[in-house]
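Recall that a protein's primary structure is simply its ordered list of amino acids. Everything else, from secondary elements to tertiary packing, is in principle encoded there. The following example makes that idea concrete.
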Amino acid sequence: MTTGTEEITTATVSAQVGAGSGICVPSLADILAANPDEFIAAYTDIAAVNLACAVGLPKSEDIDFPKYLSLLDTMAAAVRRQTEKSWRLFKIKPAEFDHSENVFRVLTMEHVLRVQFKIKYNSHVWEKTKNREDWNTADSSEIFIHGILNENNRTGTCSSLPVVSVAVGRRLGYPLQWRCACQITRSFVGPMAKRYSTSSTRSAGVS
């Protein structure tokens, strides 16, 4: 766990995460000074980079790198199990998923994140943006993913929900990119959130 005023270092956080994890966590100095191509090659976990950027900002005091990165691994394992369990749904009703295995996999992932892990869009921010009101915040948990990974919150916004989805998807080998951020975020609100939660889906074994 970090403190709000602590200087994050690569060595410190790598020791927290564990040498066997294979995850490198950058320091702020690494982020600011890095060559983009070299940075991407060295720091492959988008979640670790996101958390590193949040350290030292308001409401970041409870960031726990090992716990949060482990939680993302747990989420990925749950998605894998659910995808295997409900694969027959895609075979029975492929049209509901645009005849695309990729669509089915992503919708299954979002369903698990919403239903099993209770991740949702921040209702306060959603109301503000829906009504085209200005939204300003000094709370980093509304911007970065620790707001979602904190067990007392589990809410995110357009800047954090896609990061969690991409981080979980990449753990499953899905080649997700940031440019799909808006589409992924929309699955947590509105019609897309209901698309996968139909009676036919539940009857096919999706819990």
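Residues 64-203 form one domain. The longest strand covers residues 120-121.
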